[in-house]
Structures are given as C-alpha cells and as structure tokens.
Write a structure and sequence with these properties.
binds iron/sulfur cluster, Nucleoside Triphosphate Pyrophosphohydrolase, about 450 residues, Endonuclease III, domain 1, 16 helices
C-alpha cells in the first residue's frame, strides 16, 4: 500500500469515527425541542427560518405562538401580512417573516399546500438558501443533503483542522461536499441535527467543551491545541453608525394619552412596520460621523423635519436615546418629546397619511438650508384631514404604500407590528405615563 493510499484509508477511518460517534451521542443528548416532536415539514421549515441569527431559547415561544396562530401553510399564506409581522415582532430580521409568507403562498399555489420533497422546488421558495433547503430536505424527508451553517463550519474546521476562511463562498461549497460525504446512509435526518447540536452545545465558538466531546479522540484541532483559533473567519465590516432624531409626538385634546406612529414604506428596511417618525441627523460640519448634534441644532432640525413631513408638532425636550442595530447600520435614535400643535385649524387626524418622506430627501432639504417653512410645509390642509397626498419628496413612493399615521394608546399597540427599538420605547413611554416603573 502506498503512503497516499494509507493516508486516504486513515482519513476514511477518521470520518467514519466522526459520523458514528456523533450519531450515538445525539441519540442520548438531543434536546427536546417543539419542532422535533413531529416530523412536520412545515414546522421544520418555520423553525429553521426562525433559528437564523437567533438563539434556540428565544425561538421556542415564538415558534409555539406562530404555529398556534398559523397552523398550516394555507393559514400562513392567507393571513394579513400585519398579523404575520405582529407574530414575528421582537425576533428581528423581519424580511424573514415576509419571505416566509411569500413562500407559503408559493407552496399553496404550486404544491397544494404541501412543502415539496424536491430539491429544486425547495430552493425556489423565497427566503430559502442552501442551508435551509438542506435542513428541510434532510430533517423532514431524510434526504442526504448537507445543511451547512456557521455552527457546522466551525465544527468541521476544527475536527478536520481546515484553515480556509469560512466567510468565503468557496469554503462553504467545500464544507458542503465534506458534510454530504459524512452523512451515514439512511441517517441524514439525525446526522444533520447531531452536527448542529454539537456546534450549539459542545463545540461552541469561544470555549469548546472538548473533554465531553464525542469526537475528541480524532479532533485534529484539539490534537494540535489550536481549537480556539479556528475557524478562520475574516471580520465583516462593522455596521455604520447613524445618528437620527425621533419624534415622540404626544397628542392633546381628542388625542390626549396617545402618541403618533407612522408606517414605513412597503419595501426596503423594516417594510410596513410601525415606528415613531424619525430622520437622519448628520453631525455638524467637521464633527465625527457619530457625533450627536448640539441640542439647539437638533431641535431646529427636528422641527423642520416634522414640518417637511406634514406633521404638525413642536419638539420640546430630549427624552432618551436608543439604539437599533442592523447588519450594516446602527441607528442611534435621539428621541424628543413633541407636542401636537394647537395653532392649526384642526388637529392631526386620528387615522391619516403623511408622505413617508425618505429621510435622505427630508434631510437634503434641511441641509440645503431651505429657510422658508412655507416652502417645506405641504399644501394647506392636505395632510390634516387624513386623505392621501400626492407629494412625495423622492418620487419613489405612492400614498398606498407608505406614510399611514395613527394615534395610539397602550392597548392599540397590540394591533401594530413594531421593530424592537420602537416597541421598547413605546412600552417605556406608556409605563411612564401610567406612573409604573419598567
Ligand atoms: S474536540 Fe473540541 S474542538 Fe474538537 S470538535 Fe470536539 S469540542 Fe470541537
């Protein structure tokens, strides 16, 4: 036998050891998770989408509520989008929820409501990438498809001492071949979950628990003493900081005890979710990009932004700061209490619509030093009676898909889906209003 043949044989043994020991370990150690209690492809699909970027403990109550509210593909496909977003509220990455509903409609229309047991069909569902497709096909249908995510790449990098950069596409492809090779015949369902489970419970990112690890004996990184320096991963660019001014508009008269919320446009970041109106607040000239505007300038800019957006309110004082982090951007929201103004002929409508002016456009107007408020102020009365308006600063949006406004109290919050940061701010505000500590 040549040296090469001997090496290949050894490598084969190392792979067999890995697959066998991992499966045995999983049978004894697997967690009892709600989506593992039934082999329902729909449940598996929902759980896999929820688990992207989110911890298992966080997902469990969301999963249970979601399945109770939308027990079948058809129920999800036919639900109002607002209900789906409300059920997702707090989980973040809301495009997952929208894509999920879009894909449920695809499954209903093209596959009679049954999640397809077919690689191409699963791949064609909106929001389903290689990992999720592999997870659905293997866990629900026991098909020998790899399901390779960050956890799995970490385990494989360590066990096989692979120093390829896992942030790079070709590394993922290589890992998928390797993971597929490791699946024992007829065991895809258990093996893929075992691999995920090992990454989640034992071979964790910072402090892998090598001593109780079922594959320690042949783990190359452990034998070389370099398990904590793997996997190799180039750092993603840090999210860009962006200062924003947000308006907590407190109602008066008929709106006393309520605050004004606005709906985001139908596409883009946090599409169709509800929020306090807010706009970017670029720093003063010469200041650091993340520098907060001086108070007087912030109040002035917010007053102009409110006017530009057709919101008749006067900023009064800084209330608090809050952060919202996306993968590419971090908003620091400086929230100001604002009063609904009384000088106008009629108060803002309880339910109305204002232009969802893209913040950039509003800000450009402010930055350009447009002084005459009348020129920024919308046509007289247009925004005050709740009717749609035609005037959109950047021309990209239509009244149908953006800018709806509502006056809400705490109870009304149940009817609208908010990104986390606004959910927290509104809960704090209403608790403060009721004199309750939060
Ligand atoms: S021995 Fe340690 S580094 Fe290797 S797979 Fe197990 S936990 Fe991970």
């Amino acid at each position: 036998m040549t040296q090469q043949e001997q090496d290949e044989q050894e490598q084969q043994q190392v792979k067999l050891f890995f697959s066998r020991n991992l499966l045995e370990w999983y049978q004894g150690q697997k967690r009892d998770l709600p989506w593992r209690r039934h082999r329902n492809p729909y449940y598996i699909w929902i759980s896999e989408i929820m688990l992207q970027q989110t911890r298992v403990d966080t997902v469990i109550p969301y999963f249970n509520r979601f399945i109770e509210r939308f027990p079948t593909v058809e129920a999800l496909a036919d639900a109002p989008e607002e209900d789906v977003l409300k059920c997702w509220e707090g989980l973040g990455y809301y495009s997952r929820a929208r894509n999920l509903q879009h894909a449920a409609k695809q499954v209903k229309e093209l596959h009679g409501g049954q999640v397809p047991n077919d690689r191409d069909a699963v791949f064609s569902l909106k929001g389903v990438g290689p990992y999720t497709a592999g997870a659905i096909l293997s866990i629900a249908f026991n098909r020998p498809e790899p399901a390779v995510d960050g956890n799995v790449m970490r385990v494989l990098s360590r066990y096989f001492l692979l120093e390829d950069d896992i942030a790079k596409g070709p590394t993922r492809v290589k890992m998928e071949y390797l993971a597929a090779e490791l699946i024992p015949e007829g065991e895809a369902m258990h093996f893929n979950q075992a691999l995920m489970e090992l990454g989640a419970l034992v071979c964790t990112p910072k402090s892998p628990r090598c001593l109780p690890c079922p594959v320690m004996e042949h783990c190359a990184a452990r034998l070389a003493g370099c398990e904590t320096s793997l996997p190799v991963k180039t750092k993603a660019k840090p999210p860009r900081p962006e200062e924003r001014l947000a308006a907590l508009i407190e109602g008066r008269g008929a709106h006393a005890g309520r605050v004004l919320i606005r709906q985001r446009p139908a596409s883009g970041l946090l599409a169709r979710m509800w929020e306090l109106p807010h706009w970017p607040a670029p720093p003063a000239e010469g200041a650091a990009p993340s520098a907060r505007l001086p108070e007087a300038a912030a109040l002035d800019r917010l007053r102009r932004s409110l006017r530009t957006a057709g919101l008749s309110a006067r900023p009064e004082e800084h209330w608090m700061a809050a952060e919202h982090t996306f993968s590419h951007i971090v908003w620091t929201l400086q929230v100001y209490r604002c009063r609904e103004e009384a000088v106008l002929p009629q108060p803002l409508a309880a339910e109305g619509r204002v232009p969802y002016q893209h913040a950039g456009a509003a800000n450009t107007a402010v930055q350009a030093g447009i002084q005459g408020e009348d020129s920024l102020y919308p046509e007289s009365g247009v925004f005050l009676d709740g009717t749609p308006v035609e005037l959109f600063a950047d021309g990209n949006e239509s009244p149908e898909d953006s800018g709806a406004i509502r006056w809400i109290n705490r109870e009304d919050m149940a009817n609208y889906a908010f990104p986390n940061v606004f959910l927290k701010l509104l809960n704090l505000y209403f608790a403060e209003l009721e004199g309750k500590p939060q």
